[in-house]
Design goal:
The complex is a heterodimer of chains A (about 80) and B (about 600). Chain A contains 2 helices and 2 strands; from the N terminus they run H-E-E-H. Chain A is mainly alpha-helical. Chain A has one domain (about 1-80). In chain A, a hairpin with a 2-residue loop joins strand 1 (about 45) and strand 2. By secondary structure, chain B is mostly helical. Classes of the chains: A mainly alpha (about 80), B mainly alpha (about 600).
């Protein structure tokens, strides 16, 4: 039983990290890159605005950071809950 | 040495390299085709996956689509990289823990149903075949230019080479061949971009050059480009013109589709540990990002170069390029070379000896044209798919760079096309015929049916590739829509919900696939046969939603149908719930097993 409750804690911690990461994922691409671009139009970046930068460059960099953050965080979480291989 | 000989040398040398590595790796180990990724470091695996993933669509087609549309086509950049976040967070670690080799096996086991497995195989075949059509379009462009023949002959020759390459076989599974292909591909893509970035902005890093200053005018590059194309009546490069809803759905379709395409997911089944599956996704995206951060710079800089070549004396007032210049000046040689492929053409409509390139659909420019006596845009054909391959010639780069790009383009197109054909043939022979129709089939006949399936797939793809439903990247986008609507929701629900049962999953996949396929066929023609469509993407059936964007809606239909049907039918049995529990926990993952 003890193991099961630890497993379900592990799973809800994982789901929480996934949700936070996906919110960031959506905000930089669909948000800053497309829908919120008019709001960011005042911020100039190299001859255009911040929204354009997010759509063509920034979102990709954030995606990279997210995947590495998730891998690091989850590998740590595995060890904390004793579920690593 | 002629350019033709140089191209031949580079292409030949790169092929010799791949084959050499394949033979060396074969001799060095007895590991089988499936075990390709096992015991391989996540960095190496990431590089190989990146080569597998980046096809003619990424290499040949994407920058051209961005160049001629600008910001509105950013969807390709965000979509084809953002999908890796979904893959890394929602699928890869759990599928690795599950420990089988194919997507359809996971779906069959998790939904405890042979029907679910077969439906998954059908979804896989439909999406992969559409994907191959897009690859064949790219192969046709590359071979047409490289052998200096028409696009059609290039496509037919290319189809034979792809077929031979795929039949030659398991070579695809050798990780180090793919590492070599990645190296050729990325060098071929970045070297011309670095040269061009240096010429235009003085910055050796194209991604920085894109947001840097244009050296000749001192203005920011993008501002210069905006002004230049606006003067000719085209949409400003950095501005948002496309429909926002369609752009959001299109980006989402590409993202979900990335996480639903079996040939990419498969790579994560065979890494040594669950932790490695997480890291591998990150390394893969790093190697992909090297190309994807360069692509928008390639697009913008090429657009600037082409526009300035057509108006060599500083915009409309300086006058257009003359026919004599195009025929005689060496820096215009690329135009004659590409004219031979039938993918580029110009015509002096008003007979003034000059070629005016402008947007003749724009009312302001029509007024200018009337005043100056122009009779329509005279750069009558510029196929988007030629841009990347023509780019080094347009920028007047040394011949060896042009040869390198030819080798890179072919590496991208051939490796992915061959990989997809292998996936289709094994799905038909192994999953469909042996797994369902005739389990007693002999090994020899299984192999024969695999070959036949491969031949049929390439024949279909070549036939449709002659009249493709779009540019390479657009056709590939349709394949992503199909994968998004069918495979991804089933995988995700299989991991994150114990509620979804066998009937729910089957109903969801069938609903998602058929509604998306229907929408695509209504707009692109039944089975992509030209002229059989009832709607066009310019005026789509549902509001502003184009057929390339429908995958996201198909996925939503899949989720909803699966949920409703599962609620109304028998609950998931306990042993399957236990299976889902075990997939969620990394502990106890053994090596991937054959069945």
């Amino acid at each position: 039983m003890a193991e099961n409750s630890s497993n379900s804690e592990y799973w809800s911690a994982n789901v929480r990290i996934i949700l936070i990461s996906l919110v960031i994922w959506a905000v930089v691409s669909f948000g800053f890159g497309i829908l919120l671009r008019p709001m960011l139009s005042g911020i100039a970046v190299g001859g255009t605005d911040l929204g354009f930068w997010f759509a063509q460059q920034g979102s990709i960099l954030v995606f990279l950071a997210l995947i590495f953050f998730y891998a690091w965080k989850m590998n740590k979480l595995d060890a904390e809950h004793g579920v690593e291989e | 040495m002629s350019q033709f000989a140089i191209n031949l040398m580079f292409v030949g040398a790169s092929f010799a390299l791949y084959i050499g590595i394949a033979i060396w790796a074969r001799a060095g180990s007895t590991s089988e085709f499936y075990a390709a990724g096992r015991g391989v470091h996540p960095v190496t695996n990431g590089m190989a996956t990146a080569a597998d993933w980046m096809s003619a669509a990424s290499f040949i087609s994407m920058a051209g689509l961005i160049a001629f549309t600008g910001y509105d086509n950013s969807s390709f950049l965000m979509g084809w990289t953002g999908g890796y976040v979904l893959l890394a967070l929602l699928l890869a670690p759990y599928l690795r823990k599950f420990g089988k080799f194919t997507v359809s096996e996971f779906i069959g086991d998790r939904f405890y149903s042979q029907t679910a497995r077969i439906v998954a195989v059908i979804c896989l075949i439909v999406a992969s075949t559409t994907y191959v059509i897009g690859q064949m379009t790219g192969v046709g462009v590359a071979f047409g230019r490289f052998l200096e023949v028409s696009n059609t002959s290039g496509l037919l020759i290319g189809a034979c080479v792809v077929f031979a390459y795929a039949v030659f076989g398991g070579m695809k599974g050798v990780t180090y061949t793919q590492v070599a292909q990645y190296c050729v591909l990325i060098t071929a893509y970045t070297i011309p971009a670095i040269f061009i970035s240096l010429q235009l902005t003085g910055t050796p890093i194209p991604a920085l050059g894109l947001f840097g200053d244009h050296a000749a005018s001192g203005e920011p590059l993008l501002m210069k480009l905006d002004a230049l194309v606006k003067e000719l009546g085209f949409n400003e490069y950095t501005a948002h013109h496309a429909d926002t809803l369609n752009m959001v759905l299109f980006t989402l379709s590409l993202m979900i589709g990335t996480a639903g395409l079996p040939h990419v997911i498969m790579r994560f089944f065979t890494v040594p540990r669950v932790a490695d599956a997480r890291w591998s996704a990150g390394w893969t995206l790093i190697f992909i990002a090297l190309l994807y951060l360069t692509a928008p710079a390639v697009g913008a800089m090429a657009r600037l170069n082409i526009t300035e070549m057509m108006w060599p004396n500083g915009g409309i007032d300086g006058g257009a390029v003359t026919v004599q210049q195009i025929e005689e000046e060496p820096r215009y040689d690329w135009m004659a070379t590409w004219q031979k492929t039938g993918l580029l053409n110009w015509e002096d409509k008003n007979g003034d000896g000059k070629i005016q390139y402008y947007n003749d659909k724009n009312a302001d420019l029509q007024a200018v044209a009337e005043e100056k006596g122009w009779e329509g845009n005279e750069l009558v054909k510029f196929n988007r798919d030629i841009l990347v391959l023509a780019n080094p010639e347009i920028a007047n780069l040394p011949s060896w760079v042009i040869g390198l790009v030819a080798a890179g383009g072919l590496a991208a197109a051939l490796s992915t096309a061959a990989g997809l054909l292998l996936a289709i043939s094994s799905a038909v022979s192994h999953d469909l015929i042996k797994g369902a129709i005739n389990p007693a089939i002999s090994e020899k006949n299984e192999l024969l049916s695999a070959r036949i399936a491969m031949a049929v797939a390439i024949a279909v793809a070549t036939y449709l590739g002659l009249n493709p439903p779009g540019f390479a990247a657009q056709t590939v986008a349709l394949a992503f829509g199909l994968a998004a609507a069918s495979i991804f929701p089933a995988l995700m629900m299989g991991i994150f919900s114990t509620k979804i049962n066998n009937t729910g999953a089957v109903a969801g996949m069938l609903a998602g696939l058929s509604v998306t396929l229907l929408y695509i066929f209504l707009h692109k023609g039944w089975f992509f046969v030209p002229g059989t469509n009832s709607f066009t993407d310019a005026d789509p059936l549902l509001g502003t939603i184009k057929s390339t964007s429908f995958g996201a809606i198909g996925a939503l239909v899949n989720f909803a149908v699966a949920y409703i049907v599962a609620s109304a039918t028998k609950e998931t049995p306990q042993e399957i719930k236990d299976l889902v529990e075990s997939v969620r926990i990394p502990k106890g993952a053994g090596a991937a097993q054959d069945h």
